[in-house]
Amino acid sequence: MLLYIGITFWVFIILIIGLRPDSVLVAESWPNHPDKKIARTNERILEVFVYSTFLFLWFLTAFRSYRIGNDTMTYLYYFDVYTRGLDLSRTFEIGYQYLNYFIGKRTTDHHIFLIIIATMIYSGVILYVRKYSKNVAVSLCLFFCYFFSSFTSMFRQGIAMVIVLFGYQMLKEGKKIIAALMFLLAITFHTTALVCFLLFLNAEVLKKKRFVFGFTAFCAILSRTEFLNDVVERILPRYVHYFDSRYASTGWLAVTYSLMVYVIWYMLINRSINPGDKADRIVATNLTMLLIFAAFGYSVNLFTRAGEYFLLIAVTEIPNMLYRGKVKHYRLWLFGLCTMLLIMFIVTLIYRPGWNHIYPYEFWSKYDVF
After folding, report:
1. Given a cut of 80, is residue 338 above it in pLDDT?
2. Do 183 and 164 touch, CB atoms closer than 8 A?
3. What's the burial of 151, exposed, middle or buried (CB within 10 Å: 0-12/13-18/19+)?
4. Which of 131, 210, 231, 254 sits a CA distance of 20 to 30 A from 55?
C-alpha cells in the first residue's frame, strides 16, 4: 500500500506544480512554447516529471506478476492458444488474435507478451497527451486516477482505446473517413469500440444542459428495464451474458459517484464550448456519451466499460477546454476535483481491492508458475 500512497502523493505534487500561475501562459501559447523564459523553464521541468512518471507507471504495468490484474491470467492463457493459430470460434476479436499470433511467432514468453501489450497502450497514451494536451500534469493525474489500475486488466480494450484516441483527433480535424477507418480497426480488437461511431453525432443540441441531463436521467431509468438487454442481444450478442452474470445491477454506489463527477466535468466544460465550432461540438458529444453510458451502468458494468473510450478522450479535453479561461477559478476547480479523485483512488484500493487486483503489488518472477 505504501507504494501506491507514494505514487499518489507524487502525482499530487506534480498536479500542484502543473497548476502554477504561469501554466496559463503555457496553455495560451500551446502548441508552441511560451515567450516568457521562466514559463518555458518551468514547462520543461514539469515535462520531465510528468513523462518520467508515465514511464514508471508503464514499468509497473509491464513488469507486474500475472497475479496483478483481474484478467491477466486469462489473457496469458489465450496468448498460448493463439500462438498456435487463429480460432474464429473463440470470443476474442480477429485483430487481437492476429496480434497474439504475430507476437507468438517471435516469442512465447508470457512476460515479454505483457511488456509488449503495456508498451503499445502506454506509448499511444503518452504520445497523444504530449501532442494534444495543454496541461500534461492534469492529464497525468486524470490518467492515473482513472486508468492506471484498469490497464492492468484491459488488453484488447486498452489497445482499442488508444486507436480510438487518434481516430477521435482525426474526426476533430474533419478527416471523417480516416476516423471511421480507425474506429473500425479498433472494433477488431474490442467490439465495444462500435460505440465510438456515436461521436459523429456532433449535434448542437448536445450542448444544451437541460436536454443532456434530462436524457441522461431517462437513460438511468431505462437501465432498470429489459430494453438494454434486448438491444445488446441484437447488436452485440457476445456480451448479452453480462445481464445474467454476478455484475448485473451491482456497483450502483460507484456508478452514482462517477456520474456525479462526470456531471461536474460536463457543466464546467460546457461553458467553454463554442456551439458554432464543429470540433467543440464533437467535444460536447464525447462528454454527453460519457454521461449516457455511465447512466446505463446501473444495469451492468459492460456500459461503464464502453464509456471508458469517452473517458480516456476526456483526459486531454478537460484541461484543454478549461484552460480557455471561460470558467472562473478553473485552476481551483481542477485542483479540487483532481485531489478528490486521488483520494478516491486510495479509498478504492483499501475498500475495493478486488476491482482490479493491483494490491499488494507483485513483480514478475521467473519462478512464478502459471
Report:
1. yes
2. yes
3. buried
4. 254
